[in-house]
Structure formats: structure tokens, C-alpha cells
Amino acid sequence: MMEGPFLSTKQKQDSFYQQYLNQKTILNDQHLVNLQTFIYAANLLSFQLAADQLCLSPSAVSHRINKLEKQLGFQLFHRFTRKIKLTTEGERLYSVLKNSFSKINSEIHDIRGCELSGSLNIFSHPSVAENWLLPRLADFVSCYPSIQINIRMGNEQASFQEQAIDLAIYYSNGYFPGFNSECLMEERILPVCTKAYAEQNKLINQPESLVSCTLLHDAKAWHYSAVDAEWHVWCKQMKIDLPQHHAMITFDSSRSSACAAIYGMGVAIGRLHLVRKWLDTGILISPFKFAPLRTSFNYYLVWPRLQYIPPRLEVFLAWIKQQGEMSQQADYHFSLLSTQ
Questions:
Q1: Which pTM does this prediction carry?
Q2: Domain 188-295 is of which CATH architecture?
């Protein structure tokens, strides 16, 4: 075969394609044992302790790590006299591998076992998790005690791959390109405050009195929302002018906004699924005789598009959808009673 500048166009194409394949297959099955060794060393931050766990000599562990670093093309550890420390690149790789190996072990356990088991990672906005999901979760745990439930909360978008999330619950308009999604339950919103606050500010059936009130806002009601988005939605539908230059306090969750209303700090926009328990007990009231407002934002279940849905996810989806139906039915009856 001719080399250098004398390579034919076809040979250059073949050479380039082989280089491309080499880049795309940096890791293959021959490197799995080295990756596993890296996980032990990264978790324990010690070649000696990793060697003890793997029944190897420290030099064998060091050799595997050196070989892996050479193959990857970057350093995984800073070596000091009596300790090691992950490099920035090593931390990134460890984070990904730890989640990946955990999911592999979980799947193998499921396949080998005769019962539903393994871990299930659920991501939710804090308000939905704390006010709606957690009070119901004991029922699922009692039915499926071998399924390990891990709840993670945040206002950001879930990273399904990096965080190994199996299912997310969002308050959203329902647009999730590239994912499976299903509406869990519809939501309705309404102003809420304490009875004492409503009487003090002459709010009972007088929405025009909102001008003298402090409005409480969930500043992160949904992705890319304005800080007062929910109040704007409610006022527009009710054909009420949102008070200009009104006093306001903002929060990063609907739950915090509702709790502030409980403490007599002002009037919040409450989501019926999340505040109904406080309305039922009289801790909060809705000062106006308006039916709770339906909007285009609801609660959605979102999960990756998978060729195979693990049984533990299937049973959780069935359970949570049943809970959603029961909660929605209860809110429907509340909405009817609120206008009577």
C-alpha cells in the first residue's frame, strides 16, 4: 500500500474512517475491568483500599488505572505521596460511571429476582413532591417494599442521563419533545389567604381590594415564567386588572408562597391539588366566590423513550396515575362546592 502523499483518494477515505472509528470506540469490552477498578479507586480514594476490595495488589490497581488513562488520553487522578485525588476529568467520569453501573446492577437484580425490586429515581418540583406526592407515597411503599424509592427535588429540568432519573413530574404546558409523557392530573388555581387577612383587608368578595394587599408569587411557576405569571393568568381570565406597583414577595416554589399566606403575609395564587388540605381545614380560604380557574398548565409524568420499561417503573406509573385520578375527582367536587 502506498503511503504519505501517494495515498489514493480511496485509501485516504479508508484511513480517515478508521481514525473516526477509533475515536468513537475509545472504550470497549476489554476496558470494563479497568473501569470497574477506577470506580473502586475513585470511591475509596485509595489504590490500597481498592486493591483490598478487589483482591489485587496495589501495583495491579495502579497498572490498570495507568492503562485506562493512556487509553482515554487524560489523567484520572492526582498522585501524592500518601493519597490520591480525582482530577476534574476523573470526577466527571466517576459521576457518569457510578450511575451507569448502579443501573446495570439494578437491572441484573431485577432479571434474576422473582419479585419487583430495584431502585426507582423520581424527580419532582419541590411543591408537587412535598404537598402531593409524599403524603401518598407510603401506600406505594407498603405495596412494593422491595422497590427502593429515591426522591430528588429541584426547579431545574431533570437530567435523565446524568442523574439516572427514571421519571419526572412537572407542572407544565405539556411540551416534552423526545420524551414519553402523560398528563397526571389537571390543575386549577385560585387566590388564597387566611380569613383574618381577608377580613383585615376587606377582601371578602371584593377583588378590587387586592390593590391594598401584598401579593405572594411563585417566581418559578413553570420554566421561563415571569415572577408574577400565575397572578397575571388568573387576573386576565377573571377580567380583573392586576394592581400596578403592588407590594409583592416572591418565592421559588408554590408551596413556599402558600405557606407565606398561612403566616398572614399576603394573598397567594394557590394550586388546588396542593392547597386543598389547608382549604378543607380552614387554615386558608379563597376570599372570592369564583370557581377555581382551569389553565393550560397541568401536572405531567415524563420519562425517557425506552425499548423496555422496567417492571418497577410500570407499577409506579400505574399507581401514580390512579392517585392522580382520585385527587382530580376530589378537586372537581371541591370546585363545585366552592361556587354554591
A1: 0.65
A2: 3-Layer(aba) Sandwich (3.40)
